[in-house]
Each structure stands twice: as C-alpha cells, then as structure tokens.
Design a protein that fits this description.
CATH class: Alpha Beta
Distance between the termini: 30 Å
Order of helices and strands: EEEHEHEHEHEEEHEHEHEEHHE
Number of helices: 9
Bound molecules: glutamic acid
CATH topology: Rossmann fold
Strand order of the largest sheet: 3-4-5
Shape: globular
Helix content: 25-40%
Length: 319
C-alpha cells in the first residue's frame, strides 16, 4: 500500500502555496487505464490494463477508462474503438463513461489560462537550437535552460511551458518504493501545449486524474520520471492529490527492448480471451486462474491478486 510522504513543497509562484501532501484515506479507491490510441493494445499495455483492473477491484474500487488521444496526428479513432472492443472481449469492463481527451481541449486550455497561468510562458526554442545550446555549454539537452522565461512571448503562436518547482518531492511508489524527485532538475519546464495547440500528455493527464478523482495511478515505469511534474501541476491547479502511485515493470522482448508500438510489439489477438488473460497473469507473476469465461477468470484473479511479487522489479520478460 503506498502513500504520499508528507513533506513541504515550496514554490516560486504566487498561486501554488507551500503545502503538505497528505493522504486522504476517506476517498473511495478509483483507478484508471489510460491508453494512447496510437496503435492496438499489445502485451505491455494489456498487462497494465489487467494489473490496474485487478488491483483496484481487489480494493473494492472503480476502474475508469480514459483514451489519451490529444495528439490527433498520432492517434486514430479506429485504434480507440479497437481498444474498447478488446477490453470488452477480455471482460475488462470499465466503470462510468469513457473519457476521450481529444474532446476536452477547451477544459485543458481553461486550466492553462487561469489557475496555471502564473507558471506558464511562451517559448520559441526549437529542438535544434536547444541541442546547439546544450553542446556549446555542455549541458543536458533534455533539460530546458529557461531561455524564453521572462520574454513574454505570446502563447497563441508559440509553444507553452510550465515552470516546475526546484524542490524535492517525495512519494511512495507501491511497486518501486520511496521516490524523491526534483521536477525542475529531472524534467525542467515541461511543454504543456505545442505551437499547433495540441495539449501534451502531462497537462491533460494531470488535470484528468484530478477531475476524475483518481486515487490510484498504476502505469508503466517509463512514466515514473514525469510523476514529479504531474504532482506539481496537480498542486498548482488545486486538484486532489493522487494517494497511491504504482509504476509497473516494463515488458521487454527477447532483445531486451520495451514492448511498444515504436518497436512494433505485436497487437493482442482477443479471439482466445481466456488464453490471453492467463498469459497476462503469468507475465504479472500472479497465481494461475482456471480457464473460464473472462469475467469469471478476472474475478478469480482479483481474489488472489498479489502486488508484492512485483515489488522492486523494473522489467519483465514477455518472451
Ligand atoms: N497514455 C499513456 C500510454 O499509453 C499512459 C499514461 C498514464 O497511464 O498516465 O502510455
């Protein structure tokens, strides 16, 4: 069971006040699965879905589904529909309505132009110019050196960054253990809206996790480095805190690569849902379940769900 460690957060803005991150045990457990429909589900995303479902259901909670499709150039409605069908075929029924982030751009912009505005600034630095800067000053190219901060560039024709605090944030990760992160040092000022108006993942996910009252976030370990930024953004936006974080080990193929759409991980085939669920549970090191209907198999998986076997693990082999 994880919790946010109480600690003080100072910030350089007037809106975000020094505060403590306290655990609110009175909130009902709500988890979510938040795939980006840039391709079909593969074994990596399926195990995240199964793990987040079983974990939140084992706590008697709700499991929400959110389609993270703000990047309209990379996402496809067909993939979204396929993901919904696949989840249903596997008995992974979500609670409540599905949220499509592509329909919520105005909402994210409202947050950006009101509560988050004191942290935001326009930026005209291109990737190329930042790389040139980093090689000249021997600095980390992934860390934005705040060249445009204070230049008051208009937001409409530039990308927008958010200032992240230069302070240590601690949280307990239910899989990876205690984490300490300085968002300014690790991520730097993140781009939250691109020049073309596309809202980036970190802003949309932070706002939605807050507005959906999510208490338990379970996702891949690749997103752990962004968690400090997410905590800072949620605090600055006055959104409720995530009580429990879990970053699951990544599924790797025989070559040791993370299973992802980029390296062409095979889409799952739900024509044999029972076998697929069994496989996902084996990969997650869970006790075997009897072959049955997907719903019954999931009931059994929930009743014997044991997260401890994944503690401290960073990678699992999918081959
Ligand atoms: N949309 C992200 C993905 O598909 C997951 C983000 C999250 O769970 O916070 O990798």
């Amino acid at each position: 069971m994880s919790q946010i460690l109480p600690l003080s957060l100072s910030s350089h803005t007037s809106t975000a006040q020094p505060s403590t991150v306290a655990q609110d045990v009175s909130r009902p457990p709500i988890g979510r699965f938040a795939p980006s429909p840039t391709g079909q589900l593969h074994l990596g995303s399926l195990t995240t879905a199964v793990a987040s479902y079983c974990h939140i259901k084992s706590l008697g909670g709700q499991w929400r589904l959110r389609i993270e499709d703000t990047d309209t150039a990379r996402c496809d409605r067909q993939f979204s529909e396929q993901i919904l069908l696949d989840l249903e075929a596997l008995g992974l029924y979500w609670d409540g309505e599905v949220i499509f982030q592509s329909e919520r751009t105005d909402l994210y912009n409202d947050y950006l132009t009101t509560l988050l505005a004191p942290l935001a600034y326009g930026c005209q630095c291109s990737r190329k110019s930042l790389q040139a800067y980093a090689s000249h000053y021997h600095s980390d190219p992934s860390h934005y050196p705040r060249l445009c901060l204070g230049h008051k560039l208009d937001w409409q024709s530039h990308k927008v960054r958010l200032q992240l605090p230069n302070t240590l944030i601690g949280f307990m990760d239910g899989v990876q253990g205690a984490q300490w992160v300085n968002p300014q040092q690790s991520e730097g000022d993140v781009v939250v809206r691109r020049q073309d108006g596309i809202i980036n993942y970190i802003l949309a996910a932070s706002i939605d996790d807050g507005l959906q009252n999510i208490t338990h976030v379970m996702r891949g370990l690749d997103i752990l480095p962004m968690t400090g930024a997410q905590i800072s953004i949620m605090q600055a936006a006055g959104l409720p805190t995530i009580n429990h974080w879990y970053h699951l080990p990544l599924m790797r193929n025989a070559k040791g690569q993370k299973l992802s759409k980029q390296n062409l991980a095979r889409p799952i085939d739900v024509s044999r849902p029972s076998e697929l669920l069994q496989l996902a549970l084996i990969l997650l090191k869970q006790p075997a379940v009897e072959p049955d209907s997907p719903v019954r198999m999931l009931e059994q998986a929930v009743s014997q769900w044991d997260l401890r076997v994944l503690m401290g693990q960073q990678a699992l082999s999918a081959d």
